[in-house]
Design brief:
With about 325 residues, the protein is an alpha/beta fold. It folds into 2 domains: about 1-100 and about 295-315, Rossmann fold, CATH 3.40.50; about 100-285, 3-Layer(aba) Sandwich (Rossmann fold), CATH 3.40.50. It has helices spanning about 20-25, 45, 60-65, 85, 95-115, 120-125, 135-140, 160-170, 200-205, 225-230, 245-255, 295-315, and strands at about 1-5, 30-35, 50-55, 70-75, 90-95, 150-155, 175-180, 190-195, 205-210, 235-240, 260-265, 285. A 7-stranded parallel β-sheet has the order 8-7-6-9-10-11-12. The longest helix has 20 residues, at about 95-115.
């Protein structure tokens, strides 16, 4: 059986470490492993590959892989793989949603606390060496309690479910939207709305968390109309993908105080352009797509992928299988 590890990224953490292949060879001695640091130049090796571990794949490369049975993407997002040939094929596609769920949920909670306690403003005062006791109370969004506040989750996949459990444990009221509201509510979620009731859910939330994948139906799903449905003291948190949010509409909503603040980890264009007005807005907290960062990332990736590899070799169902027709 042949596995191609095909990972290319300019950020060091997103590259598989050398020990990853070595441990695979130790744990799966009958597995042939070929590594490429780029998607280019690997075409001949694709001809007889049965498994590919990659962030992305070109349609013409997929066409060459006649024996391919399974693609694993270590990211949670797979929209970059949703080309017609792959979607309509019999090849299995799995992703890293089980790896990233708890880590990103921690980041969500960190952002909620930062916004609730107005830490961004406190840090700006610190940079100016200002003892801003009165300023923190009178000239900014006043610090408030997290317990008892309502969190509205747009999406209850692996990240949303983990965030719901943690938020509920802190005494927060958790509500959510999902395509089928009739399904049992995930742990910690008090009330589930259908996607056609998104505006209603937004209007009941103190903190709105975007945790949906990019699909045809989710692109810019949060636009000016949906932002206007939010409470004036509500905060928006996006740890999903930048494409699900209309950034221009968000800037307007923040300038006009339609909503109180936003904490953004993902953007329509990354890196966020230097001329983006978001950089200078005092009611915006920016993290540079770091919600999934952890020093345990590749240990978590290895544990998950090796379990799926054992299942694959034994003919057992795989974990985190992507519904290619839905795109997640």
């Amino acid at each position: 059986m042949k596995l191609i590890v095909m990972i290319q990224h300019q950020f060091e953490l997103w590259e598989t470490p050398a020990w990853f292949d070595q441990r695979l060879r130790q744990d799966f001695p009958g597995l042939q492993i070929v590594r490429f640091s780029t998607r280019d130049g690997c075409e001949q090796e694709l001809d007889d590959a049965e498994i590919i571990f990659t962030w992305a794949l070109k349609p013409e490369q997929f066409a060459r892989a006649a024996r391919l049975q399974w693609i694993h993407c270590p990211a949670a997002a797979v929209h970059q793989l949703m080309f017609r040939e792959l979607v309509n094929s019999n090849a299995l596609l799995t992703n890293g949603r089980n790896v990233h769920g708890k880590v990103v949920a921690e980041h969500v909670l960190a952002l909620i606390f930062a916004l609730a306690k107005n830490l961004p403003y406190a840090m700006r005062l610190q940079a100016r060496r200002v003892w801003g006791l009165e300023l923190m109370w009178a000239e900014s969004a006043r610090p408030r309690e997290v317990s008892g506040a309502t969190v509205g989750l747009v999406g209850v996949g692996s990240i949303g479910r983990e965030a719901a459990k943690s938020a509920a444990a802190l005494g927060m009221n958790v509500i959510a939207t999902r395509q089928d509201p009739g399904e049992p509510a995930p742990e910690g979620v008090r009330k589930v709305f259908g996607t056609n009731e998104l505006s209603k859910m937004l209007g009941e939330s103190d903190y709105v968390v975007l945790a949906v994948p990019v699909t045809a139906s989710t692109k810019k799903m949060i636009d000016a109309k949906q932002l206007a449905a939010m409470r004036p003291n509500a905060c928006l948190i996006n740890i999903g993908r930048g494409a699900v949010l209309d950034e221009a509409a968000l800037v307007d909503a923040l300038r006009t105080k339609t909503i109180a603040a936003a904490a953004l980890d993902v953007f329509e264009k990354e890196p966020l352009p230097q001329d983006s007005p978001l950089w200078k807005m005092e009611n915006v907290l920016i993290t540079p797509h770091t919600a999934g960062l952890t020093d345990k990332l590749w240990e978590r990736q290895y544990a998950f992928f090796s379990e799926n590899l054992r299942r694959f070799m034994n003919g057992q169902p795989l974990l985190a299988v992507v519904d290619k027709q839905k795109g997640y």
